[in-house]
Amino acid sequence: MSQLLAERIAQDFIEFLDEFHRYPQPYDDAMDAEFYEQYARVLREQSKWGYFNWKTAPDGTPRPTFAPSSAGKDERQLYEKAMRSKQDGRPPNRNQRDWTGLGSQVGAYIQREVMLAERHFERLTGKAPRFRFERTERGEPAFEHFVKKIHEVEHNGEKFGLNGLPDGILLYITDDGEVLRVGLEVKSFQKSYTDFKKQDKPKLDHELQTHVYNEMYDLDYTIILYHLTYGAEWERDFGRSKAYGRYFPKEARIELLDKFARVTKAWRTKTPPAIDLDGWKYNDYKTAIAKGFSDDEFELLKAQVRRSQRSNLPQWKKNQYYDALEFIREVREKEAG
pTM of the predicted model, to two decimals? Predict the structure, then answer.
């Protein structure tokens, strides 16, 4: 078990999709009917009040929960979310709204292609598929709401939950016939074809997300797949997907669990972590943080920003720090009347 094997799995997944896509798309109404019936059932079940307990662990201990998408966020943001602070309103523009919506559809597209390949790959290619979805006890494909859960964790003396909806848990057949469980994380790539060709590694935030899923579903291997949505010439024959294999055993996830445990302790003791100015631009709790600042904390922040202005940091980062300080100053002054 190693990173080399993880990379081989990712390459095999691309080859699996590429080979399947050299044939006309199969139409399978029976598959679609079964899938939508299954999905409607699980959505109705999970929409009932109390299906998930977001506030306490099974033993009754109050605890926060953390989603995979929050893995790359700084500790102050996670603290404010755990405290149920009010988020800043950020209505999306049309581009952002479409970008988000299209990204969700890309994941659904890849999931359906895998399900189609399970039923038609061998008929078309003469070879058994090396990938298929793991199935639940009810025969549902292991992705999204079919395997949604809160995974309870006790780490460094703190209890917290991990919750999310994975893009997939695959079963991969090795050359030796061994079956490995592999996580699937699908991301849309909505920049140009030129940018797509230049990409040579996954984003750090996306890798951190898979750490959470690996912990939740007891996985060591993950495929992070990027699928290009940007157009190219109709006659051009090229693959729209890139995949990166990652080996994330239990010991590789300790640092992230340490972080969630620190935030949980801060939440339990009502002790806010320091703010991270590097992540300020995409912080969803700017106003709540500014309103909660103590005088001592504000003085420390001013000193930090003064030091940054005299440092060798790039100018854009100095500007970012200064803008954060001014935003916090304005909110505090407004609160003071």
Answer: 0.91
